[in-house]
Design goal:
Blueprint lengths: L2 E8 L2 E7 L10 H8 L9 E7 L6 E7 L9 H15 L9 E3 L2 E7 L5 E6 L22 E5 L2 E9 L3 E6 L8 H9 L9 E9 L2 E8 L3 E2 L4 H13 L6 E6 L2 E7 L6 E5 L2 E8 L2
Parallel strand pairs: 2-3, 4-5, 10-11, 12-14
Antiparallel strand pairs: 1-2, 1-17, 3-4, 5-6, 6-7, 7-16, 8-9, 9-10, 11-12, 12-13, 14-15, 15-16
Length: 280
Amino acid sequence: MPIEFAKYHGLGNDFILIDNRHSSEPAITPEQAVDLCDRHFGIGADGVIFALPGQNDTDYTMRIFNSDGSEPEMCGNGIRCLAKFIADLEGSEAKTQYRIHTLAGVITPELRSDGQVKVDMGVPRLLAAEIPTTLAAADAKAIDVPIEVADKSWSVTCVSMGNPHCITFVEDVAAIALETVGPQFEHNKAFPQRTNTEFIEVVRSDYVKMRVWERGAGVTLACGTGACAAVVAGVLVGKCDRVTAVELPGGVLEIEWAEVSGRIYMTGPAQRVFTGCISD
């Protein structure tokens, strides 16, 4: 049976969006998602996102298959794209804010009048057991701790935004050989569920440059949860302000870590590229 889809991107982090409101199970398998994400023989994307019926008093449920077929808990750029996709599906009935159930908890994106999407990403989790990582005791935080990767000692801070992140600050982010170093971080034994890895160059305390190796997707042009985790790490080690712009290869995200509530807010674009139909 043919399946209609729409292609969206958030700062070049691109996704295939599928209207899955008719079923609580994704319309395609992880193996099919791998084929669709192939940039030469498929549609081409960093992942496939499904808009499923809501649960537990939410408007919708979000599920994602990465380009390697794995399923992450959440995706920051992806949920902005999902919010735009839902609004496009609903048309005149569209709301400006949605409560979306994810494997990382309930996330609330807000579609702003300027075309940007602001997302309440919740409270970052910092205990080693929550990330998870073995770089600190289970009930301790892994902040500015050493790890040996690619025959080098790195100082890293670990943060969970519902998915695991390992952040390291470097002098020149452009000099990092992501394709070589990224997989070694992702599969390091210190991260039992693998990890996303962010390399951060501090330009000013309120402006940083970031490159990312995403768990299950590799090098991407942007990572929303990674940008959030990077600012949290920057605040924890005294390098970043609580409101910081994060420049990624695909563009800039505005990140705020609210001091009173402890919640993270991410603001950035999401854009539809084209629509199509997947045939049998």
